[in-house]
Fold this sequence. Notes:
Blueprint: E1 11-19, H1 24-38, E2 42-46, H2 61-72, E3 75-78, H3 92-101, H4 113-131, E4 137-139, H5 147-156, E5 161-162, E6 166-169, E7 174-178, H6 189-202, E8 209-214, H7 222-235, E9 240-241
Parallel strand pairs: 1-2, 1-8, 1-9, 2-3, 3-4, 4-5
Antiparallel strand pairs: 5-6, 6-7
Organism: Sphingomonas limnosediminicola
Protein name: DUF2334 domain-containing protein
Pfam families: DUF2334 (PF10096)
Amino acid sequence: MAIMVRSWERLLLASIHDVSPRFESEVDSLRDLLSPHVGYRIAMLVVPNHWGNAPIVAGSPFASRLRDWADAGSEIFLHGFYHRDQARHQTRSARLKSRFMTGGEGEFLGLSLEEASVRIAEGRKVIEDITGRAVAGFIAPAWLYGPGALEALEEAQFALAEDHFRVWSPATRRKLASGPVITWASRTRARLASSLLAAGALRHAPLQTLRVGVHPPDVRHPLLIRSIEATFNHAARNRRAARYADLLD
Length: 249
């Protein structure tokens, strides 16, 4: 159940990306890391078939765990279908985003309306059949959306969606929160260093809603673990751990 958000409240939203059988042990580690700070209020961003070779199969142990997380109160978001970007991008802007903003992971950046709609419908069905409840919303891999994806989200009438700089409702076209999300990158030493600097600054930002997104590779780097802990410890001083659905009120 969503809790009424008072206009003066400062909120903390926590999410685990790339929830998949491929990263089951890393997801467990991330839940252990976040739970002392936010309890069950963790958004789980689920990839139905990561890179086309890690499907979530109904009746499997991982599917049972996914249902258990939903039953415990975690919000279950659809997070693409394959996560991998295999589109042929038509514009220079999209090609640059695909190359520099993510390592080939922006699946929904170059999809047409028809392609995006099919993947959304199929992914939604996989998750909802397993959990027995509606998905909380849709968040694109790498937070990257092309025009086709945005149109497909509106047609699918998702209550919630998110990109790097906002949370909004595709169903109502209403912006629900704004400000950059805190996340970490570790593909290169330069990205790791820059994400540590950004997290250190953003955790002090005067945002009403602070969003923090973690990824499976984060658990492999002690520096990132310490930064994640510092971010949640700081947020706990004056923020309430919330669910994305709370923003709808």
